[in-house]
Amino acid sequence: MRRRDFMAVALPTAVAGWSGPAWALTESDAAVGVRAAIERGAVAAVGLLGRTDGFLGNPKVRIELPGPLRQAATLLRSTGQGARLDELVTAMNRAAEAAVPQARTLLVNAAKSMSVDDALRIVRGGDTSVTQFFEGKTRQPLTQQFLPIVGQATEKVSLAARYDAVAGRAAKLGLLKERDADLRGYVTARALDGLYLVIGEQEREMRRDPVGTGSAILKKVFGG
Questions:
Q1: Nearest-CA neighbor of 97 among 153, 38, 13?
Q2: What is the pLDDT confidence band of residue 72, given thresholds at 50, 70 and 90?
Q3: What is the pLDDT of residues 87-118, one digit of tens each?
Q4: Which alpha helices (DSSP H) does the chain contain, by range?
Q5: CA distances to 79, 119, 220 from 84, in Å
Q6: Contact at 8 Å (CB) between 135 and 196?
Q7: Angle 27-49/6-14 helices, nearest 10 degrees?
Q8: Distance CA 110, CA 137 (A)
Q9: What angle do CA 78, 59, 63 make, to 5 degrees?
């Protein structure tokens, strides 16, 4: 779709429910509105997750041991090592909570650099359009930023090395994905999954109640 068609097709959909004329909302207004929306959602998600119990206390994003290792965990608990397992799970979630604030700058920059074409895809997309945008722009660089932070937070836990050994064997047997065989990589991937999940929740809330955001432009773009 050509950009000049943006006004004719995308914006009437974007401003459904807005009583003003569609022509009053320019391409620039629309792009500014979408940038503001996704930046707002990203910053809110970082604030919710990048604090004590942001992951550990939220069942939607809490990081648990991967499925194939839970049987081994059950065996360890039966031998009196439940406290050590709890320490490991807590450390994994604390590592995610420590890493997530580092995402703020990259997410904000991705939002600010969004093109009009990106804005069009987001306006016309479903509830996962913002998540897909951020994943495409930030997952790889954020993985590199998170890995050392996660490593520092988990390496002092007594079962961390045991995780790598057991997970490595499970991966060789095809019981576990290779990427999950390393504790740092596993926690980093789950931390990013949780971050994008919460960003998606923020987007859905914004689409449901753009007026509640207090932004006149968002009201125009997503309906008032």
A1: 153
A2: low
A3: 888 999 999 999 999 999 999 999 999 988 88
A4: 6-14, 27-49, 67-78, 82-99, 104-112, 116-124, 129-154, 160-172, 183-208, 216-222
A5: 11, 47, 53
A6: yes
A7: 40
A8: 7
A9: 60
C-alpha triplet 79, 55, 184: angle, nearest 5°: 65
Return the half-sphere exposure (C-beta side, CA atoms, 13 A cut-off) of residue 25. Answer: 30
The rounded distance, in Å, linking the Cα atoms of 112 and 90 is 35
* pLDDT single digits (tens) 27-61: 777 788 788 888 988 999 999 999 999 999 999 99
End-to-end Cα separation, the chain, in angstroms: 26
Tokens 């904000």 -> residue: 108
Separation between Cα atoms, residue 30 and residue 14, nearest integer Å = 9
164/48 Cα distance (integer angstroms): 29
Cβ-based neighbours of 217, under 8 Å, separated by 6 or more:
29, 32, 33, 36
Alpha carbon distance 170, 173 (integer Å): 5
Handedness of CA 176, 177, 178, 184 (dihedral sign): negative
Instruction: Please name the amino acid found at residue 189.
Output: A
